Amino acid sequence: MDSNRVLNIKTETDFKTLCFKVFEYQYNNCEVYQKFCKHFNKHPDNVNSLKSIPFLPIEFFKKFKILSSQQLVQKVFTSSGTTGQQTSKHHITDIELYQKNFCQIFQAQYGSIEDYTILALLPSYLERNGSSLIYMVNHLIEKTRQPDSGFFLDDLNRLKETLLKLETKKQKTILIGVSFALLDFVESYNLKLNHTIVMETGGMKGRRKEITRDELHQKLTKGFGVKHIHSEYGMTELLSQAYSKADGIFELPPTMKVFIRDPEDPLHIFEDFTKTGGINVIDLANINSCAFIATQDLGQNVKKNKLKIIGRFDYSDVRGCNLLTL
Predict the structure, then answer these.
(1) What's the confidence (pLDDT) of residue 210?
(2) 164 C-beta neighbours (distance < 10 Å), count
(3) Terminal CA-to-CA distance of the chain, rounded, Å?
């Protein structure tokens, strides 16, 4: 199936048309997904709305190889997890599609990558192999072609000095960091940043007590001296990302659509935008694995193509990728 179609979605009709084609393709080519669909007596001939497409529980990425493509696997992304936990594996057969997609999504939200210096404070991700976030951020850092762009493992003083230097030069900067590391930073330093976007990717990774996103953003806005904290919502099992520029409201890219399912009845999709429930994601960038995923995240559709993340189901694994419990 031509993966480039994913990068050229312009309208709702484009998205919907491609959805049904991808569903049929994945039903026919992913044995695990086909068995799951048959369990609910769903197949391409009787699915006539996006909501009626079966959403594969995200846990399947831990237990099965979820692949729809016959191409060779080029990369395997793995989720984080504490010792002894089973991790998710996302087998990638078209790494170039992932690169093009995350660059396209980033530029739609923030403009040209080359305009920014990107500083990354992602220690827990750097300490393991297979992180899709590290892969993405590293690629973006390389595309900036800025000498100060780079990763900061635990040298917070060097990060502070770099931020102050870039502020003096009025250089547009993005500091992207995991929540616990950003909190560590503001407990040591207080800054007033005028040319820097601070972006959290969520997750305490067991290093700190979980707090709400509102509490996190309150601490970070004060510590960095910025008006708003930006957020990135992504995970190992999804090849698209959503970004929030304030208040934890995420804007979905053209490749994604979200439905909210009833926590008491996973097959029931809420019509009411005020309802909170489990997040079902369609991510067409997952064209070669499974594009229809029932996550363990709790959220609410705010309005068209906008999503608020509330937290996670109590029984889901505690791992990063932008979820804070209430």
Answers:
(1) 72
(2) 13
(3) 41
CB neighbour class for 212 (10 Å; exposed up to 12, middle 13-18, buried from 19): middle
pLDDT tens per residue across span 61-89: 999 999 999 999 999 999 987 556 789 99
101 or 321, greater pLDDT: 101
- Whole-model pTM over 0.90: yes
What letter represents residue 217's amino acid? H
Tokens of 258: 């979200």
- Could you say which DSSP state residue 239 is in? S
Q: 3-state class of 174 per DSSP?
A: strand
Residue with token string 């996550």 = 295
Query: Could you give the C-alpha distances from 53 to 167, 265, 278, 300, in angstroms and in order?
Result: 49, 15, 16, 20
Where is pLDDT greater, at 214 or 120?
A: 120
Contact 183, 208 (CB under 8 A): yes
Task: Return contacts of 218-223, CB within 8 angstroms, 24+ apart.
Answer: 219/183, 219/186, 220/182, 220/183, 220/186, 222/186, 222/190, 223/185, 223/186, 223/187, 223/189, 223/190, 223/191
pLDDT tens-digit series, residues 265-309: 888 999 887 899 999 999 999 999 999 999 999 999 988 899 999
Six-digit token string for 276: 């909170």
CATH number of 3-95+253-312, picked from 3.10.350.10, 3.20.110.20, 3.30.365.10, 3.40.50.12780? 3.40.50.12780
Domain with residues 97-238, CATH architecture: 3-Layer(aba) Sandwich (3.40)
Distance CA 7, CA 14 (A): 11
What's the one-letter identity of residue 102? F
